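Quick one: sequence plus zinc ion SMILES, need structure tokens.
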Amino acid sequence: MLWDDFMKSDYHDWRGTGHSEDRLDKPGWLEQWLAIHNLPYPGAPSTKELDELRWLRGHMRRIVQKLTVRESADPADLEGLNRALSGGPMYLRIAESDSDFRLESIPLEAGWSRIGAEVATSFGRILTDCEPSRLRICENSDCLAVYYDETRNRSKRFCDDKLCGNLLKVRRFRARQKAAKAGSSSIPEVSDIIQ
Ligand SMILES: [Zn+2]
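Reply:
Sure thing.
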């Protein structure tokens, strides 16, 4: 989705090196992200436009943080989301494909404010049309990526089971192995090893 890929711009090395970077400052990242989502690149953003993208990202993260602990979103963060939405006037049109109808939003502007509005719309749809209680923050404390849990039993604990999930599994196993070697009674269970 547009919004969660945008959130990945705030990168923290999930392997625990402590390295982090704001990919909004990385040449080419915004261009690549927009290309993946079939949106036009409006050219390099100004400092003010970059700040607005960062504020929007901050509002979205804080809303997710509140919802994951079953608290209401802060009105200031919702206001920030609404501000981003107001930056991209658009009109709707009905399109038909394979006998299905869908509403398409056609932007009236082509700049970064329109992109911010598209991101806010993509996130807003999660809040209004999906289940906000499925929003999650990765349990890997080195990662903390935000994602939408689409699993049937709402059990997704990591942004990516193959990366963060496996890493923590291996860490848990090694910690138990170390404890066992140190003579502790905490010997790893076979089920922990083959999980
Ligand atoms: Zn993660």
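The chain has a mean pLDDT of 91. The CA atoms of residues 31 and 41 lie 6 Å apart.
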